[in-house]
Amino acid sequence: MAVRIGFIGVGGIAEHHINTLKKVEHAQITAVFDINQTRSKEVAETYGAKSYESTEQLIDSGEIDALFICTPPFSRSGIEEAAARKGIHLLSEKPVGLHMEEVKIKEQIIRESGIIHSSGYCLRYQDIVAKAKAYLADKQIDLVLSYRLGDMPGVRWWRMMEQSGGQLVEQSTHQLDLIRYLAGEFKEVHAIHEQRSIQKIDPEATAYDVGTVSFVLESGAIGNITSSCLAKYVGRGGVEFYGQDFFLSIDGMTLRIKDDNQDLTEVSEVDFYYEQDKAFVEAVRTNQPSLVLCDYSDAAVTLAVTLAANESAAAGKSITL
Fold first, then answer.
1. How far apart are CA 243 and CA 222, in angstroms?
2. Would you say domain 123-271+303-320 falls under CATH 3.65.10.10?
3. What's the distance, Cα to Cα, between the start and end of the chain in Å?
4. What is the architecture of the domain spanning 3-122+273-294?
5. Who contacts 176 (Cβ-Cβ below 8 Å, separation ≥6)?
6. Angle at the Cα of 14 (from 10 to 20), degrees rounded to 5?
7. Separation of alpha carbons 236 and 249, rounded Å
8. Where is the GFO/IDH/MocA-like oxidoreductase domain (predicted)?
9. Model confidence over 163-197: pLDDT tens digits?
10. CA 40, 16, 81: angle at the middle one, nearest 5?
11. What is the C-alpha separation between 50 and 63, in angstroms, rounded?
Protein backbone atom coordinates (compact mmCIF):
# COMPACT_ATOMS: atom_id res chain seq x y z
CA MET A 1 0.00 0.00 0.00
CA ALA A 2 1.38 3.39 -1.00
CA VAL A 3 1.42 6.17 1.57
CA ARG A 4 0.24 9.35 -0.18
CA ILE A 5 2.25 12.30 1.12
CA GLY A 6 1.64 16.04 0.96
CA PHE A 7 3.93 18.96 1.72
CA ILE A 8 3.10 22.36 3.17
CA GLY A 9 6.10 24.58 2.56
CA VAL A 10 8.35 23.52 -0.33
CA GLY A 11 11.63 25.30 0.34
CA GLY A 12 15.05 23.66 0.48
CA ILE A 13 14.43 21.27 3.38
CA ALA A 14 11.14 20.13 1.83
CA GLU A 15 12.80 19.37 -1.49
CA HIS A 16 15.48 17.40 0.36
CA HIS A 17 12.72 15.33 1.98
CA ILE A 18 10.98 14.87 -1.38
CA ASN A 19 14.16 13.59 -3.03
CA THR A 20 14.74 11.32 -0.06
CA LEU A 21 11.19 9.97 -0.16
CA LYS A 22 11.66 9.06 -3.83
CA LYS A 23 14.03 6.34 -2.54
CA VAL A 24 11.59 5.10 0.12
CA GLU A 25 9.42 2.15 -0.86
CA HIS A 26 5.66 2.81 -0.54
CA ALA A 27 6.10 6.63 -0.45
CA GLN A 28 4.18 8.66 -3.06
CA ILE A 29 4.31 12.48 -3.26
CA THR A 30 0.80 13.60 -4.28
CA ALA A 31 0.22 17.19 -3.12
CA VAL A 32 2.14 20.38 -2.32
CA PHE A 33 1.35 23.91 -1.17
CA ASP A 34 3.56 26.92 -0.69
CA ILE A 35 2.62 30.54 -0.15
CA ASN A 36 4.91 31.17 -3.12
CA GLN A 37 2.57 29.73 -5.75
CA THR A 38 5.18 29.84 -8.50
CA ARG A 39 7.49 27.70 -6.41
CA SER A 40 4.61 25.39 -5.45
CA LYS A 41 3.70 24.77 -9.09
CA GLU A 42 7.33 24.23 -10.08
CA VAL A 43 7.83 21.59 -7.37
CA ALA A 44 4.52 19.91 -8.21
CA GLU A 45 5.46 19.69 -11.89
CA THR A 46 8.96 18.42 -11.13
CA TYR A 47 7.82 15.63 -8.84
CA GLY A 48 4.47 14.65 -10.36
CA ALA A 49 2.28 16.08 -7.63
CA LYS A 50 -0.65 18.49 -7.59
CA SER A 51 -0.18 22.07 -6.39
CA TYR A 52 -2.89 23.53 -4.17
CA GLU A 53 -3.74 27.16 -3.50
CA SER A 54 -4.11 26.95 0.30
CA THR A 55 -3.32 24.73 3.25
CA GLU A 56 -7.04 24.14 3.76
CA GLN A 57 -7.51 23.02 0.17
CA LEU A 58 -4.64 20.56 0.44
CA ILE A 59 -5.73 19.15 3.81
CA ASP A 60 -9.34 18.77 2.59
CA SER A 61 -8.34 17.26 -0.77
CA GLY A 62 -8.60 13.60 0.25
CA GLU A 63 -5.37 13.04 -1.70
CA ILE A 64 -2.99 12.56 1.25
CA ASP A 65 -2.51 10.05 4.04
CA ALA A 66 0.41 11.92 5.61
CA LEU A 67 1.71 15.47 5.68
CA PHE A 68 5.19 16.97 5.99
CA ILE A 69 5.07 20.48 7.48
CA CYS A 70 8.19 22.33 6.32
CA THR A 71 7.23 25.96 6.89
CA PRO A 72 9.34 28.27 9.08
CA PRO A 73 8.36 28.09 12.76
CA PHE A 74 6.53 31.43 12.70
CA SER A 75 4.04 30.27 10.07
CA ARG A 76 2.42 27.16 11.53
CA SER A 77 -0.93 28.58 12.63
CA GLY A 78 -3.65 25.93 12.63
CA ILE A 79 -1.92 23.49 10.27
CA GLU A 80 -1.20 20.58 12.61
CA GLU A 81 -4.60 20.80 14.30
CA ALA A 82 -6.49 20.78 10.99
CA ALA A 83 -4.54 17.80 9.70
CA ALA A 84 -4.86 15.84 12.94
CA ARG A 85 -8.61 16.37 13.03
CA LYS A 86 -8.77 14.92 9.51
CA GLY A 87 -6.80 11.86 10.62
CA ILE A 88 -3.78 12.86 8.52
CA HIS A 89 -0.46 11.62 9.90
CA LEU A 90 2.18 14.31 10.53
CA LEU A 91 5.89 14.93 10.30
CA SER A 92 6.56 18.46 11.55
CA GLU A 93 9.98 19.92 10.87
CA LYS A 94 11.85 21.41 13.81
CA PRO A 95 11.32 23.63 15.65
CA VAL A 96 7.63 22.82 16.03
CA GLY A 97 6.78 26.40 17.05
CA LEU A 98 7.90 29.47 18.94
CA HIS A 99 5.29 29.69 21.72
CA MET A 100 4.82 26.84 24.19
CA GLU A 101 1.16 27.67 24.90
CA GLU A 102 0.30 27.14 21.22
CA VAL A 103 2.49 24.04 20.89
CA LYS A 104 0.91 22.43 23.97
CA ILE A 105 -2.57 22.89 22.47
CA LYS A 106 -1.39 21.38 19.17
CA GLU A 107 0.32 18.52 21.00
CA GLN A 108 -2.85 17.60 22.90
CA ILE A 109 -4.97 17.63 19.72
CA ILE A 110 -2.38 15.55 17.87
CA ARG A 111 -2.05 13.03 20.71
CA GLU A 112 -5.81 12.66 21.16
CA SER A 113 -6.38 12.20 17.40
CA GLY A 114 -4.56 8.87 17.37
CA ILE A 115 -2.49 9.72 14.27
CA ILE A 116 1.17 8.78 13.77
CA HIS A 117 3.28 11.88 14.46
CA SER A 118 6.96 12.58 13.97
CA SER A 119 9.31 15.56 14.01
CA GLY A 120 12.46 16.66 12.21
CA TYR A 121 15.04 15.51 14.77
CA CYS A 122 16.86 13.45 12.17
CA LEU A 123 20.14 12.98 14.08
CA ARG A 124 18.45 10.42 16.33
CA TYR A 125 18.34 8.09 13.32
CA GLN A 126 22.13 7.83 12.90
CA ASP A 127 23.58 4.36 13.48
CA ILE A 128 26.31 5.91 15.64
CA VAL A 129 23.67 7.54 17.86
CA ALA A 130 22.05 4.15 18.47
CA LYS A 131 25.47 2.80 19.49
CA ALA A 132 26.11 5.80 21.73
CA LYS A 133 22.72 5.37 23.41
CA ALA A 134 23.39 1.70 24.13
CA TYR A 135 26.87 2.48 25.51
CA LEU A 136 25.68 5.31 27.76
CA ALA A 137 22.68 3.40 29.13
CA ASP A 138 24.53 2.24 32.27
CA LYS A 139 27.08 5.06 32.54
CA GLN A 140 27.10 7.99 34.97
CA ILE A 141 27.52 11.10 32.82
CA ASP A 142 29.13 13.94 34.78
CA LEU A 143 29.79 16.61 32.14
CA VAL A 144 28.36 17.43 28.71
CA LEU A 145 29.95 19.83 26.22
CA SER A 146 28.17 20.71 22.97
CA TYR A 147 28.53 23.17 20.10
CA ARG A 148 26.97 24.30 16.83
CA LEU A 149 29.17 26.67 14.83
CA GLY A 150 28.71 27.81 11.25
CA ASP A 151 27.68 30.55 8.84
CA MET A 152 24.39 32.40 8.87
CA PRO A 153 21.55 31.02 6.71
CA GLY A 154 20.66 33.31 3.81
CA VAL A 155 16.95 33.70 4.58
CA ARG A 156 16.15 36.97 6.32
CA TRP A 157 13.54 35.58 8.72
CA TRP A 158 16.32 33.58 10.39
CA ARG A 159 17.94 36.83 11.62
CA MET A 160 14.73 37.96 13.31
CA MET A 161 14.34 36.59 16.83
CA GLU A 162 10.54 36.81 16.67
CA GLN A 163 10.46 34.66 13.52
CA SER A 164 13.21 32.07 14.10
CA GLY A 165 13.63 32.01 17.86
CA GLY A 166 17.38 32.37 17.36
CA GLN A 167 20.08 29.80 16.64
CA LEU A 168 19.47 27.55 19.64
CA VAL A 169 15.77 27.20 18.81
CA GLU A 170 16.29 26.85 15.05
CA GLN A 171 19.66 25.05 14.60
CA SER A 172 21.47 24.01 17.76
CA THR A 173 18.19 22.41 18.82
CA HIS A 174 19.55 19.29 17.06
CA GLN A 175 22.49 19.08 19.46
CA LEU A 176 20.31 19.90 22.47
CA ASP A 177 17.88 17.18 21.42
CA LEU A 178 20.73 14.67 21.24
CA ILE A 179 21.69 15.60 24.80
CA ARG A 180 18.11 14.87 25.91
CA TYR A 181 18.04 11.61 23.95
CA LEU A 182 21.37 10.33 25.28
CA ALA A 183 21.75 11.89 28.74
CA GLY A 184 18.24 12.65 30.01
CA GLU A 185 16.08 15.65 30.76
CA PHE A 186 17.11 19.20 31.54
CA LYS A 187 16.48 20.66 35.00
CA GLU A 188 17.90 24.20 34.79
CA VAL A 189 19.36 26.51 32.14
CA HIS A 190 21.30 29.77 32.25
CA ALA A 191 21.93 31.44 28.90
CA ILE A 192 23.89 34.41 27.59
CA HIS A 193 23.02 35.62 24.07
CA GLU A 194 24.75 38.59 22.48
CA GLN A 195 24.81 40.51 19.21
CA ARG A 196 28.43 41.06 18.23
CA SER A 197 28.50 41.52 14.45
CA ILE A 198 25.10 40.53 13.05
CA GLN A 199 23.91 44.14 12.73
CA LYS A 200 26.85 44.87 10.45
CA ILE A 201 25.27 42.30 8.12
CA ASP A 202 21.67 43.37 8.74
CA PRO A 203 21.12 46.54 10.81
CA GLU A 204 17.55 45.45 11.63
CA ALA A 205 18.47 41.95 12.83
CA THR A 206 17.09 41.07 16.26
CA ALA A 207 18.63 37.60 16.66
CA TYR A 208 21.87 37.04 18.56
CA ASP A 209 24.99 35.81 16.76
CA VAL A 210 26.87 34.28 19.71
CA GLY A 211 25.25 32.37 22.53
CA THR A 212 26.08 29.96 25.30
CA VAL A 213 23.88 27.98 27.68
CA SER A 214 25.04 26.36 30.92
CA PHE A 215 22.71 23.70 32.24
CA VAL A 216 22.00 21.09 34.87
CA LEU A 217 20.36 17.80 33.93
CA GLU A 218 17.92 15.88 36.10
CA SER A 219 20.69 13.32 36.64
CA GLY A 220 22.89 15.97 38.26
CA ALA A 221 25.28 16.18 35.30
CA ILE A 222 26.21 19.71 34.23
CA GLY A 223 27.08 21.02 30.81
CA ASN A 224 27.22 23.75 28.21
CA ILE A 225 26.06 24.26 24.65
CA THR A 226 27.62 27.09 22.62
CA SER A 227 26.34 28.44 19.29
CA SER A 228 27.49 30.98 16.72
CA CYS A 229 26.32 31.87 13.22
CA LEU A 230 29.44 33.99 12.60
CA ALA A 231 31.76 31.03 12.01
CA LYS A 232 31.75 31.21 8.21
CA TYR A 233 35.16 29.54 7.96
CA VAL A 234 34.18 26.43 9.89
CA GLY A 235 31.08 24.27 10.29
CA ARG A 236 30.90 22.05 13.36
CA GLY A 237 28.18 20.43 15.39
CA GLY A 238 28.76 17.93 18.14
CA VAL A 239 28.18 16.63 21.64
CA GLU A 240 30.75 15.28 24.12
CA PHE A 241 30.01 13.22 27.23
CA TYR A 242 32.49 12.82 30.08
CA GLY A 243 32.38 10.38 32.95
CA GLN A 244 34.91 9.12 35.51
CA ASP A 245 35.55 6.00 33.45
CA PHE A 246 34.78 6.98 29.84
CA PHE A 247 34.69 9.62 27.10
CA LEU A 248 32.17 9.61 24.25
CA SER A 249 31.72 12.14 21.48
CA ILE A 250 29.55 12.54 18.41
CA ASP A 251 31.21 15.09 16.13
CA GLY A 252 29.09 15.39 13.01
CA MET A 253 29.05 11.88 11.55
CA THR A 254 31.87 10.49 13.72
CA LEU A 255 31.54 8.58 16.99
CA ARG A 256 34.42 8.17 19.40
CA ILE A 257 34.39 6.06 22.56
CA LYS A 258 37.40 5.81 24.84
CA ASP A 259 37.64 3.91 28.12
CA ASP A 260 40.00 1.45 29.84
CA ASN A 261 39.20 -1.24 27.28
CA GLN A 262 38.87 0.56 23.95
CA ASP A 263 39.58 3.61 21.84
CA LEU A 264 36.98 3.35 19.10
CA THR A 265 36.37 5.74 16.21
CA GLU A 266 33.48 4.98 13.87
CA VAL A 267 31.97 6.98 11.00
CA SER A 268 28.23 6.77 10.35
CA GLU A 269 27.29 4.76 7.28
CA VAL A 270 23.66 5.80 6.97
CA ASP A 271 21.72 8.69 5.44
CA PHE A 272 19.84 9.82 8.55
CA TYR A 273 17.24 11.73 6.53
CA TYR A 274 16.47 8.52 4.64
CA GLU A 275 16.25 6.54 7.88
CA GLN A 276 13.95 9.15 9.43
CA ASP A 277 11.62 9.40 6.43
CA LYS A 278 11.54 5.64 5.91
CA ALA A 279 10.68 5.10 9.58
CA PHE A 280 7.80 7.59 9.35
CA VAL A 281 6.39 6.06 6.16
CA GLU A 282 6.62 2.55 7.63
CA ALA A 283 5.05 3.72 10.90
CA VAL A 284 2.09 5.11 8.92
CA ARG A 285 1.85 2.11 6.60
CA THR A 286 1.98 -0.51 9.36
CA ASN A 287 0.50 1.53 12.23
CA GLN A 288 3.64 1.15 14.35
CA PRO A 289 4.29 4.48 16.13
CA SER A 290 7.27 2.90 17.94
CA LEU A 291 9.28 3.19 14.69
CA VAL A 292 9.33 6.97 15.19
CA LEU A 293 12.27 8.02 17.41
CA CYS A 294 11.09 11.57 18.11
CA ASP A 295 7.38 12.29 17.94
CA TYR A 296 5.67 15.68 18.19
CA SER A 297 5.32 15.40 21.97
CA ASP A 298 9.05 14.73 22.36
CA ALA A 299 9.89 17.62 20.01
CA ALA A 300 7.75 19.90 22.18
CA VAL A 301 9.92 19.05 25.20
CA THR A 302 13.09 19.96 23.27
CA LEU A 303 11.43 23.22 22.23
CA ALA A 304 10.56 24.00 25.85
CA VAL A 305 14.23 23.77 26.85
CA THR A 306 15.38 26.08 24.05
CA LEU A 307 12.66 28.63 24.79
CA ALA A 308 13.58 28.51 28.49
CA ALA A 309 17.15 29.37 27.46
CA ASN A 310 15.82 32.39 25.53
CA GLU A 311 13.87 33.42 28.62
CA SER A 312 17.01 33.07 30.72
CA ALA A 313 19.08 35.20 28.34
CA ALA A 314 16.44 37.93 28.30
CA ALA A 315 16.03 37.92 32.09
CA GLY A 316 19.69 37.46 32.97
CA LYS A 317 18.96 34.64 35.40
CA SER A 318 18.66 30.86 35.59
CA ILE A 319 15.36 29.25 34.60
CA THR A 320 14.16 26.01 36.19
CA LEU A 321 12.18 23.75 33.89
1. 11
2. no
3. 43
4. 3-Layer(aba) Sandwich (3.40)
5. 146, 168, 225, 302, 305, 306
6. 140
7. 13
8. 156-244
9. 999 999 999 999 999 999 999 999 999 999 999 99
10. 65
11. 9
